[in-house]
Every structure is written in C-alpha cells, then in structure tokens.
Amino acid sequence: MTRRARPLDLHDPGWALALALCAGLLGPSAIARAEAPPLEHRYQLWTQLGVKATVDPDWSLRADLALRLRDAYAPSASFVHVMLLRRVYDRMFVGLGYGFHPSWTGPGLAGVIDEHRLREQWMWQLVDPTSGVELQLRSRFEQRVRPVEQAIELGLRLREFIQLAVPILPEGRLALVFGTELFFALNDAGETPLAPAEDGAPRRSPRWQTGGVEQNRAFLGLRSDLAAWLRLELAYQNQWSVRPHHPRGDRMGHTVLVGATISAP
C-alpha cells in the first residue's frame, strides 16, 4: 500500500525541523564564503539520467549518465556510473560501483582528462510516517585514478551527503528538497615526475587534488514523482571549491541541476 503524505503544513513539526536543518546546512558555507577573499564565479548546467532496477528484495542496480555544461554551454564533464546495492537493514544500503569521468579543460572538447573511479557507499533513508519528511544520509569513499603519460595517479576522497525532502503535495507528487555534500580529500594527487621536455627541462604533472576539505555543494530545489516509475528534479546548487594553489583562488559555482530517474520493474 502506498503511504499518503500529508500536504505541507507550516505548523507541522516536520516542517520546522526541515527549516532548522536547512539553516544548519547552508549557514556554514555562507559564513566561510563571507570570510574568504573574492572568488572566481562559474555558471553551469548539470543534467543527469538515472535508471534503477531491482534484482530481488535485497539487491538492486543503479546506472547514471550525466553531462555537465559550463559557460556558453560548452561541455565541462561527463560521467557514466554503475553501482550494485545491497540492503542490509530497512532502508539502509551498502554499494560498490565504478564510474568513468572524462572532463575537458579547453574550448570545445580540447584538453580531455580521463578519470576512473571506484566507489564504496553506505546510505540510510529515514521517513517520518506522520509528516512524510524524508532524511537521506550517505557516505561515499572514492578511489580516483588518472593515467598521466606513462604514470598512474591516485586520489582518495570521502564524500558526506545529507538531504531532506519535505512534501508539498501528497503521494510524492511534489516535494521541497535541500541538502549539502562535503568533499574531503584524503591525500595530495598529481605532481608526478614526467619525462624531460625536449630542451631537457624537468616536468611534472599538475596537482589536481590537495588533502583537506575540497568542496561543498549546497542545493535547494523541487522533486516530483510523475509516476511510480518516473521522478524529476530541478534545483539550484551553490558549489564552493577550495583551490589553495590556484592563482585565482577558490571558485564559486552557480549550477542549475536537471535530473530524471527511471525505476525499472
């Protein structure tokens, strides 16, 4: 039987909890940015299509395909993810997956960087049966592998994600969704010694990961279950990227997120 969520009620304790968590999630990022020097701003559009398939009651498979566009709609990155999930408790899952992440640093499709990611994940979804408020917690450990000429570089990263969804219309037809994801780099990556240049000068690959807090993504948007098999999402994301060795300092990304998820039977 489908649980019927109540319409949005501003006097509902679940709504008050949602507002409190939103302030707690978005506040630290805003304070950090206010204390930081002027930032480089980037405006982007991120699109993503996900497909979920249930193998049996305890096993499921998820695949994601994404394209990310920067200023003037030039492609900045794309990825393909596949993850196998195992239910270990009611609404609690662990997963193992792989992702291929090409990105482009130059105009058009110039300056391509290939990255391969192995991922281990823990996720817990909590739902209040009275208000329908849904809380999702997720921890993800990534091993990021980049081939550089004759070398292989490895970056280790931990991602901590929290999301709250507050029903506006019953039965999931429309919900307010907000949350944040913090990225922690566990090591430095890059600066690998390479073959000398033609004039004999030493060369090193660029550093692309520095240990410590790497970025924070805070988002606010709407989610709609148009059918039992189709979910759509539209959101704004504020992305603060820490770049301690970049000449222009940190970067602030302003991103429109457009996503769809199809649930196969």
Describe this structure in words.
With about 260 residues, this protein is mostly beta strands. Helix content is about 10%, strand content about 60%. The protein contains 1 helix and 15 strands, in the order αβββββββββββββββ. It has one helix spanning about 15-35; strands at about 40-55, 60-70, 75-90, 90-100, 105, 110-115, 115-125, 135-150, 150-170, 175-185, 195, 205, 210-225, 230-240, 250-265. The strands form 3 sheets. An 11-stranded mixed beta barrel has the order 1-2-3-4-7-8-9-10-13-14-15. It has a two-stranded antiparallel ribbon with strand order 5-6. The two termini are about 15 Å apart. About 15% of the residues are buried. Residues about 1-10 and about 30-35 have low confidence and may be disordered.
Condensed summary:
This protein is mostly beta strands and 265 residues long.
Main attributes?
265 residues; mainly beta; eleven-stranded mixed barrel; two-stranded antiparallel ribbon; 15 strands; 60% strand
Principal-axes shape call: globular
- What are the secondary-structure elements, in order, as H or E? HEEEEEEEEEEEEEEE
From the N-terminal CA to the C-terminal CA, the straight-line distance is 16 Å
Instruction: Give a quick account of the main beta sheet: strands, pairing sense, barrel closure.
Output: 11 strands, mixed, barrel
> What's the β-strand tally?
15
Q: What do the pLDDT scores average to? A: 86
Could you say which structural class the secondary elements and strand pairing correspond to? Answer: mainly beta
List low-pLDDT spans.
Answer: 1-11, 30-34
Helix content: under 10%
Indicate the radius of gyration in whole angstroms.
20 Å
β-strand amount: over 45%
What is the strand arrangement across the widest sheet?
1-2-3-4-7-8-9-10-13-14-15
- What's the assembly state of these chains? single chain
